[in-house]
Amino acid sequence: MNAPVxxxxxxxxxxxxxxxxxxxxxxxxxxxxxxxxxxxxxxxxEAVIRPGVEDDIGIILKLANExxxxxxxxxxGTGNTGASSPIKGGWVIHLDHWDKIEIDPISAMATVQPGxxxxxxxxxxxxxxxxxxxxxxxLKYCSIGGNIATNAGGLRAAKYGxxxxxxxxxxxxxxxxxxxxxxAPLRKFVSGINIRDLWxxxxxxxxxxxxxxxxLVNKPLARRTFLLACRTDEGALDAAAELMGLRINPSVFEFxxxxxxxxxxxxRAKRVFSTEELKGNPATHAILLIEIDGHPAAxxxxxxxxxxxxxxxxxxxxxTEIEIEAEALWDIRRTCSQAMYSLGNxxxxxxxxxxxxxxxxxxxxxxEVRDRTGLAxxxxxxxxxxxxxxxxxxxxxxxxxxxRAEKAIYEVMQKVVELGGAITGEHGIGIAKSxxxxxxxxxxxxxxxxxxxxxxxxxxxxxxxxxxxxxxVWDYRPVKxxxxxxxx
Length: 488
Ligand SMILES: Cc1cc2nc3c(=O)[nH]c(=O)nc-3n(C[C@H](O)[C@H](O)[C@H](O)COP(=O)(O)OP(=O)(O)OC[C@H]3O[C@@H](n4cnc5c(N)ncnc54)[C@H](O)[C@@H]3O)c2cc1C
Known about the structure:
Largest sheet: 8 strands, antiparallel
Shape: globular
Distance between the termini: 25 Å
Number of domains: 3
CATH class of the largest domain: Alpha Beta
Bound molecules: flavin-adenine dinucleotide
Number of strands: 19
Number of helices: 15
Strand content: 15-25%
């Protein structure tokens, strides 16, 4: 935990006087809980504010500008990049209690407050035959405000798109404290410059979202799940590219490399595929998990194409359209993240993207890094859109491990950009990836981003230090805490 810099006691007192002590907390326990996200680097704020009404946000921001107090917005703190950590101290605005959700089944829209938990939107939309497709693995814990601010993706992004594809309108406050509305609850809106889309994915640096109108889509009537084993990583990735060429449009298409499968199988009571199924060769194998969904008639046609394709590429496979059996097929994907801790007590979890033509080059590079550094590099991810989670497993208490991991991750990022890819596809930059921003973007591009930030936030009070100031995260030690999602 890094001590707070109490530079703004007069401003905090003025805020308490305006909003009341029940909305502005300065006790250590509250401040600590709001000082880190899933990255677990703690930076203590001076106060945590839970606004009562929307106008409170205008009051907070106006005072913050007057006294130059840093302000960071917090959803539910599941972010992986430290983006909701108040790295310059100041105030945290915590919006987890603003969680109303209203479904309009006729226009297929949901009007939500930012603290609403993503999974709950689906719970309420389901009775109308609707759903909100973006499904980050954290959907039972994260907020829609955080999803919009990071332009979150998920398992079904390849077919249904990411959060940006499902936002009609946003309401909120500029960093200077004025209330704004970007677009409206309409299917079409092209009036003026589209700042709604600038806010999406801006990681809480350009404004505070207080309401969003989301696009819902029809829930598919049926789904079919396939799980298959391929002999090698390269074999699985070549097969993945071929499947995409068959125009099947899978709603889920996950790849687990041989390192990931090996770690996950060790943790499971029973192997997914038996030695007999693997044709007497229980050696390492990669796994592909596929789901197709839609109308049952169309599904039958696509399923036939998938089976033919499986025949050309898999050593073993399973298939089901029964919900409970599908859950069993998902089990290895759900457990693989935790299973990796058998390979090191800490992990770097990246969310890079590469084009189809570079899949094999990427996976070969991760193995090259493993062989060179002695650190495991299990990789899994979304084979339909090239968004892979490359991990580097290391021992946090071993200085040599940390040195190797730090160097290796920089090299992985360089390689990703060289392969025509992106350093992040869903988690964002925050502080975690700030040292890599200049690998991805030219000075002119970064200057343009900074100019937009300056135009909307002239005093630089909102999320200062995020994205643009490279921070060496290795100078800080993560706090040891158990978070709600750790066992899931
Ligand atoms: C187990 C696990 C699995 C995950 N899987 C995925 C995944 O599959 N896909 C994916 O994309 N991410 C994933 N994540 C990362 C994380 O869940 C997402 O980034 C999520 O969108 C963050 O939501 P949150 O409410 O926790 O936001 P926070 O972590 O609190 O904040 C994230 C960012 O949003 C900003 N923000 C929050 N609320 C507002 C607001 N009202 N107005 C303006 N800015 C705001 C914050 O300032 C910060 O910059 C995963 C995380 C975990 C722990």
